[in-house]
Amino acid sequence: MKIAMIGTGYVGLVSGVCLSDFGHNVVCVDKNPEKIEKLARGEVPIYEPGLDRLMEKNVEAGRLTFSGDLATAVAEADAVFIAVGTPTRRGDGHADLSYVMAAAEEIAQALDGYTVVVTKSTVPLGTNRQVKQTIAKANPKAEFDVASNPEFLREGAAIDDFMRPDRIVVGVQHERAAEVMSEIYRPLYLRHFPILVTDLESAEMIKYASNAFLATKITFINEIAALCERVGADVKLVSQGMGLDGRIGDKFLHAGPGYGGSCFPKDTKALARIGQEHGLPMQITETVIKVNDEMRRRMIDKVMDLMDGQIAGKTVAVLGVTFKPDTDDMREAPSLTLVPALIGAGAKVRVADPQGRHEGEALLPGVNWVDDAYKAAQNADALVILTEWNEFRALDLKRIARRMAYPAMADLRNIYSVRDAKRAGFVRYVSVGRADHMADE
User: Fold this and answer.
1) pLDDT exceeds 90 at position 92
2) Handedness of CA 178, 67, 134, 202 (dihedral sign)
3) Measured between alpha carbons, how far is 302 from 431 in angstroms, rounded to an integer?
4) Which of 198, 224, 242 is the last residue of a domain?
5) Last-in-domain residue among 198, 227, 249
6) Is 18 a catalytic residue?
7) pTM tops 0.70, yes or no
C-alpha cells in the first residue's frame, strides 16, 4: 500500500520506517526542509537503537522516501498517518491539538480518491471526530474515513515494540476503513499479533488509560519504597514478591526517581484534564501526578542528606541525564529537577551520559560534560547514578572510589548494594527503598 506519514518526529519516523519494512511504500513528510535533507542523506535526527540501519535498508529498497511536499504524498496515498506533536498546553494541562488540526486541513485539500486518515498522535477523546469534521469542512467532496491508531512504543525498544507488539489498536467508524487498516498491519496479523478493532473513542481512551496505569504502577512502587526505608524493608524484594503474582506482573515495579519522558507526564496530565472537563475528576491519576512530583523532590533531599547539606563548592558527578537508557530524550527527565537544584545550592556538577549531551547542553546550562563515569568521578565529593545505562551497571567501583575526593554514592536506580559500595571503599551510600546503613554490614 501507499502510505504518507505526516511528521518525522519520534513516532512518525519510527512508524514510517517500520511500515516500509512491512513492504509498503512510505513517504515521510515534514515541513522542516533541513530535517528532510538530513533524512535524505541518511542522517537520523533521534537516537533509537537499530533505526539507522532499518532506515538505510528500506531507502535502498525504494520503499521509503522523505519529502516536504505534503500535497503530492497525500494525493498518492491509500492511508495518511498524522504523527505530529501534541504537547501539553501551558496553563490548563490539555494536549495542544493545533498541529493535528493544521495537518488535517492541509490533508483535506490534497485528498484524491478514497483515503483513510489515521491519527497516530496521542490525542484526547473526541479528537478523531474533530479531525473528520475539519477535513469535511475544508473539502466537502473528499472521500475518506478517519481511524485512530495509537502508538505504544517504548523509547530504546521502539522497533521491537512495533514489529512484535502486545497489540495493535484500531478505532474506526466503518468497515471499509477497518479493511484498509487490516491490510496495513497484515504482516503482524499473519504472525498472530492481536489486532483490536474498536470505535474511535475507545481507541483514544485505551492509549490514555494504558499510560496512566503504567505511571500509577511506577508511582505506587516509589511510594512503597519510601515506606520501606522507614520500616527497614527492601523494595527490590518487595517488588519481586509482588511481581511474581500473575495478576500484578513485574514490569514497571522498579523504584527510582519517578517517571519522565514524552508520554507519561503529558498523558497523565491530559487524562486528568479530560476528567475535569467531563465533571468526573480522575482522582487516582491526579494523585499519581502529585506523588511523582514529590518523589523527585525526595531525590534531591537524598543527595543533600548524603552530603550533610554541605553542597556549596562541592563537586557532584551525575551519571545519566536522559529520562531512561537507550534514548537521547530529555523530556521531563528527573535530571531536569535534580541537576538545577544542585547547581542552585552551589555545587559544581559533572555529567556523563552516552547520549544526553545533544539535548542536555541547552537544558542543563552550567554543567561540565565528560566522556565516562571515571572522568566524572575524578575528585568528586559525591556520585549520583540517575539513569541506568548499561555502562553504569558494571562499574569498577573500587576505581571510582579511589578517584573521588570523598567516596559517597546516591544510587537512585538501585543498581548496586550497600555491600558492593562498602567493599569498594565507599564511606557513604544511599539508594531507593532500602535500608542503607554501612554500619549494619
Assistant:
1) no
2) positive
3) 8
4) 198
5) 198
6) no
7) yes
